[in-house]
Amino acid sequence: MDSLIIDLRTGTDLVTDVTREVLEFCRGRGDGLCHLFVPHATAGLALIETGSGTEPDLAGAVDRLLPREDVYRHRHGSLGHGRDHVLPAFIAPSLTLPVLAGAPALGTWQSVVLVDSNVDNRDRRLRLSFLEG
Known about the structure:
Largest sheet: 5 strands, antiparallel
Number of strands: 8
Shape: elongated
Strand order of the largest sheet: 1-8-3-5-6
Radius of gyration: 15 Å
Distance between the termini: 11 Å
């Protein structure tokens, strides 16, 4: 299995598109599986359509489901930081994609995004791993 770690800066927007990084990592690798993992307690990975209003729709859904208010037992950090720690229970920190002929088999409108509402720590790592088929 081959792996690569990518450093990312997040926190200004809930959604960071990492599709280009995934495409580049898979290029030329043939058939197999690409596994993505963010080793952070406050971030997750998702497949969504980007650029069509989905990012603010997702932000609104997260705000309704996990309000930023100070209602959490986990209270260190900025206001509502406990929500950041609950987020990965709803948006998993890992994702596996089929890769065919060196390209992730994404749907027409699918993009790979990192979802992170934590404004206290904006430095993130994304591990990409390829398992040959």
